[in-house]
Amino acid sequence: SLSLGPRVILEPWLLRQGELLYESVADLHTPLMPLSISWLARLVPDGLSAARLALVGLLTVTTLLTFVVAWRRIGWGAGLWAAGFLVVWSPGFGFSKLWHESFLAPLYLLMLLCYRGCARRPAVSLLLAGLLGGLAVLVKQHALLVLGGYAAWTAWTRWLEDRSPGGVVRDLSLMGGAALLPLAAFAAYQLARAGTLSGFWYWTVEYS
Questions:
Q1: What is the DSSP letter of 28?
Q2: Which of 77-86, 140-149, 154-163 has the lowest mean pLDDT?
Q3: Which of 86, 67, 48 lies closest to 94 in space, CA to CA?
Q4: What is the pLDDT of residue 102?
């Protein structure tokens, strides 16, 4: 059965009433989950229905991406098995509850799809991976560890392939620059709304 905590309904509702995240509404996580649900509620005004729609949509996308990742890496049979396994065991993984991990799972799977194990990686794949990693950090700040691990693996495999310092710097620069875009966009949004980033910094870095 699907599970919806009170916070995923109350917090987006408060934001729609004009309250400011990290100023009049405290949150220990980065902002993309409550903001996304509050934006979805403009199309689905009922908060409970919006949260349910978000959870069902994220579960569907995660299942499809699980199939695609396994299919591309191994084959059709593996894709079907992986998707079926996720559907059966999703309650055990916590995917039946709408929380930050519900948003992170499809972003991580898309990052896996962006990975290219070749020396001359297309710039587009690196930019997309960085952008997705930046969005993941906006969902939950702990995703910075995943992004860092992904970047380190990309750099290490690039070095093993052609021993090119310039190639490593190029790959990391593309990924890092793209990852900063979502963070910069939110910083501009928060400054426009609240006039300061001090509340955001306190709750997501100092306090948490």
A1: S
A2: 154-163
A3: 86
A4: 92
Hey, CA dihedral for 28, 31, 36, 39, is it positive or negative?
positive
Res. 6: pLDDT tops 80: no
Q: Which two tokens stand for residue 208?
A: 């948490």
Structure tokens at 188: 């501009």
Q: Is 45 or 188 the better-scoring residue by pLDDT? A: 188
Q: Which of 62, 149, 145, 46 is nearest to 103 (CA)?
A: 62
**Average pLDDT of 23-39?**
94
pLDDT score, position 120 = 60
Helix axes 123-139, 100-114, angle to 10 degrees: 170
Give the list of residues 6+ apart from residue 17 with CB closer than 8 angstroms, or none: none
Look-up of token digits 């699907």: 2
Sign of CA dihedral 160, 164, 169, 175: negative
List the helix and strand counts (H, then E) for the chain.
Answer: 9, 0
Share of the chain above pLDDT 70, in %: 95
Angle, helices 76-93 vs 47-73, to 10°: value is: 140
Burial classification of residue 104, based on how many CB atoms lie within 10 Å of its CB (0-12 exposed, 13-18 middle, 19 or more buried): buried
Helix (H, G, I), strand (E, B) or coil at 96: coil
197 DSSP assignment: S
Q: Tell me, yes or no, if the pTM score tops 0.85.
A: yes
